[in-house]
């Protein structure tokens, strides 16, 4: 089975407002996955598939449409995974990036590299996820192309290879020149959008260019591209795939410039599903056995339903509807009778899924983030950690009779990866841990809205936590001495809560035979 070779599973990373939503929309539009009003395809089969899918959404009161967006073009299937768009770094985002094979980095031409882009980039680098760069909003006044390219190269320590070049920007914008295909894409009409006006040229010295561009724009384009050729690395596919070089496309998502080049670039260069890190050995996509891992669990938007959708990335094998898969470590096989497959355009295809595809598995809370699913339950995917929380808070109940509901709610949210919950050895108040402030707000509002539990958060005397392991005798001694700072996590693992990062360093030095881990893999 080689269908997986034609899969491109990717995410868009960007700082809020750079244009991720606009670009996503345009990618789907160009990929034919969404249609302009009045153009909705009336093919019987397509309609049936879509209504099935909507029924699942309605029954479960959950919106899954935007988490994974699949579109097909020229025989290639693209799975675009959405990363949450707020400024707080979240574990959810990290885990979504573990499920992709490549990423598109969107940069606002007026702003360059911003804080969130940089953080997300670092996550991609950790896993050597190759990146295509899209410099957006060239229709607006922005920074000069050289300045932007140099910033990417310097700040991210990456080689940059410009693939297209803007003929002017902002008010002077006259089009985008494709440096490899030698095509010039130009705006038309009052809206100055790209409406298909394209000229095939023999190169930058083609005399036809003088008819298409103003003298100023042409002179500038020729001069800049000549300098660019000397100053930047040529595109090298291997360097890109290793995460050492990024091809750069200039464009305007709003005016539809560069979107087509981006899709072609993903099809031509972005890697198909890669082998995934696992124990006892990495899993090749060509393996026969169906394997995958859960990278996200989404709870119900409707408080009357307790269902959840676990998003599983398929890593190997051909998944078929109704198949039995076993979560490693939990034992019991699950029949996946009503998987949500995100390429709902074609019923026949929707019965099967291939490596790189994402499957939504409805369940009642059995499946958790980090779970490995497979036919034989003999592998375990690695690299999906929980992070040591940076903020710890005690949860204080306003109504003491609601203890059970609170526990259930916190357990549920821990499962989804919204927060972590710790059960202190001493005292009755549960402690929750998060990586970013925003997660605290989400927690409190969901407790009230979904679980009808009124609770407040109090400062805890701790700031961070570490999972501890090591020699049993020393561990026992440590736990006894530090009982007031000890807790158990959801799985019963011992956790040391520290007043500061400094304290972690201090105790770690005194107990060299105990490991104080800042991440934990299930
Ligand atoms: P995000 O998801 O990354 O947060 O960004 P989003 O697409 O929502 O875009 C942020 C703003 O930038 C939007 O304007 C959007 O219209 C604009 N934008 C996106 N791409 C381009 C582009 O290529 N050129 C120009 N000129 N603008 C672009 P807004 O005013 O905040 O929202 P709206 O009222 O236009 O929806």
Automatic annotation (TrEMBL):
Residue ranges constituting the Tr-type G domain according to the UniProt record:
5-274
Its domain of life reads Bacteria
Extract the InterPro entries matched here.
EF-G-like_DII (IPR053905), EFG_III/V (IPR035647), G_TR_CS (IPR031157), P-loop_NTPase (IPR027417), PrfC (IPR004548), RF3_C (IPR032090), RF3_dom_3_sf (IPR038467), RF3_GTP-bd (IPR041732)
Q: Give the record's keywords alphabetically.
A: Cytoplasm, GTP-binding, Nucleotide-binding, Protein biosynthesis
From which residue to which does any coiled coil extend?
none
Q: Spell out the Pfam families in the cross-references.
A: EF-G_D2, GTP_EFTU, RF3_C
Quote the record's binding site residues for GTP. 14-21, 82-86, 136-139
Cellular compartment(s): Cytoplasm
* HAMAP family the record matches: Rel_fac_3
Assigned protein family: Belongs to the TRAFAC class translation factor GTPase superfamily. Classic translation factor GTPase family. PrfC subfamily.
Function summary: Increases the formation of ribosomal termination complexes and stimulates activities of RF-1 and RF-2. It binds guanine nucleotides and has strong preference for UGA stop codons. It may interact directly with the ribosome. The stimulation of RF-1 and RF-2 is significantly reduced by GTP and GDP, but not by GMP.
What's the protein here called?
Peptide chain release factor 3
Q: Which organism is it from?
A: Stakelama saccharophila
Gene it is expressed from: prfC
